[in-house]
Structures are given as C-alpha cells and as structure tokens.
Specification:
Strand content: under 5%
Number of domains: 1
Helix content: over 70%
Number of strands: 0
Number of helices: 14
Radius of gyration: 22 Å
C-alpha cells in the first residue's frame, strides 16, 4: 500500500504532504461556523451570535466523539500496515466505521428530541433559548453526516490519500457560504437559515467523500458491512481518547469561560469570546495539522521498528511546528484589529476583542511541543501519557486558573484572557519534561537497532 512511503520518503516532504491536507481540511471545516457567525452577526445581531455560541460546546463534543474513533482507528491501521498485517488492517477499518454509526445515530436522535432541555442546561437565557433550540434541532442531522465524513477523511489519509478530505470539506464550505447568502441575507431566515445551510452543506460534502471512499474500499477489498470486532473496540477508544479530549475540551472550556464572562463582563464578554475564539482556531489548526500528520508516520515506523527515523521525525516535527506557528502568530498579533473587524462592526467590541486576543496568544508558539507530544504518545500506543497531557492544558490548568483569577482575585474578563498564556507555559514545560524522557528511550532503541543491524551484517558475510 502507498502508506509504505512513511518508512521510505523524505521526512520533511512527508510532513508537508500530510499536514497541508489536514490543515486545509480543518481550516475549511472551521469556515462552517465562521461563515454562520459572520452572516448571523451581520443580519441577526448579538442574540443570534449568542445562540450559536451556546450550541458550540455540544457541536464540538459530538465532533470529538467521531475524532476519537477515527484517530484510534487510523493509528491502529497504520501500525498494522507497518507490520504488514493487511487482514488486521481491514478488520480495524470495518470496526471503526461501524462504531461511528452505532454511536452517532442514537446520539443525534436523543439531541433532537431533548434539544430544548439541552440548550437550557447549556446556559441559554430567554432571549436566545428559542433560537438556540431551533439551530441545534437542525444542525444535529448535518453533524451526523459530518461525523462520517471526518472518519472517512482520517481513513483515506491513513491509506495515503491526501486530497479527498480537502475536496469534500471545500465543497461543503462553498455550499454553506452560498446557502447562507440565500437563506440568511436574502430570505431573512435568521439562525434557522444558517442551520439549514450548514446541515445541507455537510450532507453534500459527505456524499462526495463517501463516493470516493467506496471506490478505494473496492480497490483494497475492504468490506462495508456493519460489523465490530469486540477485541478492537477498547484499543481504538483508548488510543483515540486523547484526541477526543483535545477536541471536546474546547467545548467544555467555552462553556466555563462563557459562564465566568456572563457573571463578570455581561453579554459583551461573551460576544468578545465568541469572536476571538474564531481567530484563535487558526493558530490551533496549524499545530494540530502538523502534529496529526506526524502521527501515522510515527506509528508506521514504530511498527516497523525504525527508531532512527522516528527520532529524526520528532525533531523535524517540533522544528516545523514552532517555525510555522511563530510566523502565523506574528501576523495575528499585528493584524488582530482588522481580522476581528471582519465579524463585528462595533468599535468598542473590536478594541476590547483585540486587547483580549493579544493577551490570549501572548505565548502561543511555545505550546507546539505540547501538541506534538500528545500525538507522539498516541502513535506509541501510550494512551495514559497521551491522555494526561491532553487534559493538562485546558481542563487541569486553564479552567481552575480562570476561575481563581475571576472569582478569587476579582480580575473580571482579564482573568479569563490571562489564563491562556499561563496555562500555555505551564503545560509546555510539563510536556517538554515527558518528551525528553521519551527521547532517552528512543536512544536506547536506536542503539539496539544498530546492534541488530551489525549482527545481521556479520551473519551475511
């Protein structure tokens, strides 16, 4: 299979080849909510943005469920290919696909039936609860199709195909933009129009991805039957759970920070958080894309026992991640007011959002090693270390720090913004210590690899 390039091609070329599709796919994926926020903000107003912000945490958590299964499946698949175990690789893909459907179908139905209660629990007040419920009740069906598309994208990347995920996501984003213009701007359908546009575009993107996946499935003789091999369920979930946490913790964090801002800064604080979080995702996507591109390459070489190549891969991944993120970070710091102005036209909010955003990302480049370490430990199959690092930054550090600064020290919105750089530096230091110890283990494995190579060389003489 083409995934053998993971053990043969130049590392820099592989990282570039596999990170660009992930970055572009995630970037285009973010355009779904970004476009909705733009049109709702312009043609509905603050309450509309509030409705979208309330629903966002649940959207993120549902997407995280699929990512957990997809990452766990792709990692196990890559290791099987590295070991030349094609039969196992096929069983892994079939089980992963079935797991996505088995989980997401009942979840989607449940969310639809209890959407009113859900938005109330998530903090929606009287002014936005109806719009939030309407939006959630429509987009939940699109989320189901998006989940399958996400799984297919990870599968195809593991098979060496880097184009289909970008194309399917791009198709969906373009359709969403066109439908937002029609439903929200021209027809005045408000958040309902934005929800219909998003759901319809996700279904269309899924249609393309599934068609291409079916072609590749037939090529590699992968069964599409719904069957789960029980012995694969826990390994897939355990390896993928750290990726779930990375994705889901954004939703959890947004819920906590929204509550803190509502009590200390009012509606304007929530609006500022909603706007700056859109820009923040651009920085996050860069690191996530490079680190996730490293993962299947690392998993393959671990399976093949090529630790010399693994060490080179880690060094280049960290270097590229810091370099590229720093460039984007500088751009964001300089042009923050203009970028924020895209979403909102209130000068007072633009000023506050610019100040908040610059505080939030003050130390952002240092967390490159944090995200690389998460995906590295996933590739090694060290789920405990991966999970521990994944929960560290936002759940263990940022939430308590923000609560302490806002409630304990009475810093208001500033406490929320300052929690970001404080958590960044602390989590990065912890990740560095863990990855440094891991480097020592790799060096021992390299020494053994060299001894084995030398022994084989002598035996052939």
């Amino acid at each position: 299979m083409s995934s053998k390039q993971f053990g043969e091609a130049k590392i820099g070329s592989l990282l570039f080849k596999f990170s660009i599709p992930v970055i572009l796919s995630m970037l285009v994926g973010e355009l779904y909510s970004m476009v909705d926020t733009f049109y709702v903000g312009r043609f509905v107003g603050g309450d509309g943005i509030g409705a979208l912000t309330v629903v966002f945490p649940l959207q993120r958590i549902l997407t995280a469920i699929t990512i957990m299964i997809a990452v766990g499946t792709a990692t196990a698949f890559s290791r099987s290919i590295g070991n030349d175990n094609i039969k196992s690789a096929k069983e892994i893909l079939q089980s992963g696909f079935t797991m996505v459907l088995a989980v997401m179908l009942p979840v989607a139905v449940g969310v639809f039936l209890f959407r009113d209660n859900i938005v109330t629990i998530m903090g929606a007040g009287e002014a936005i609860s109806t719009m939030a419920s309407t939006y959630l009740g429509t987009i939940i069906f699109g989320t189901l199709f998006l989940s399958i598309t996400v799984f297919i994208s990870h599968t195809l990347i593991a098979l060496g195909n880097t184009k289909i995920s970008i194309i399917s996501t791009s198709i969906g984003a373009i359709v969403n933009l066109i439908l937002d213009v029609i439903f929200v701007q021209n027809m005045g359908m408000g958040v309902q129009g934005a929800a219909i546009a998003t759901a319809a575009s996700q279904m269309i993107g899924f249609g393309y991805a599934f068609y291409k996946y079916s072609q590749i499935r037939r090529k590699y003789d992968i069964s599409i039957g719904f069957k789960i091999k029980k012995s694969l369920v826990m390994p897939i979930l355990i390896v993928g759970i750290s990726a779930f946490i990375i994705e889901a913790e954004d939703g959890i964090l947004m819920g906590v920070l929204s509550s803190l801002l509502a009590s200390s800064a009012g509606d304007q604080g929530i609006v500022v958080l909603g706007v700056v979080s859109k820009l923040y995702m651009f920085l996050f996507i860069t690191i996530f894309g490079i680190a996730s591109a490293m993962q299947p390459i690392a998993a393959y070489n671990i399976g093949a026992g090529n630790f010399i190549r693994l060490k080179k891969l880690m060094k280049k991944t960290i270097l590229y991640s810091i370099t590229l993120t720093s460039g984007l970070w500088i751009f964001m710091m300089v042009f923050a007011p203009y970028l924020i102005g895209i979403f909102i036209q209130d000068n007072a909010i633009i000023g506050e959002a610019t100040r908040a955003f610059r505080i939030m990302i003050a130390l952002f480049p240092v967390i490159s090693i944090y995200y690389v370490s998460i995906f590295y430990f996933q590739a090694r199959g060290k789920a405990r270390s991966s999970i521990m690092i994944a929960v560290l930054r936002q759940l263990i550090l940022m939430i308590p720090i923000s609560i302490l600064l806002v409630k304990g020290f009475g810093m208001g919105a500033n406490g929320v913004w300052l929690s970001y750089p404080i958590a960044d530096i602390l989590s990065s230091l912890a990740s560095y210590m863990l990855i440094r110890n891991e480097g020592m283990e790799i060096n021992l494995a390299i020494a053994k690899e060299k001894r084995d190579t030398a022994t084989k060389g002598l035996a052939l003489r």
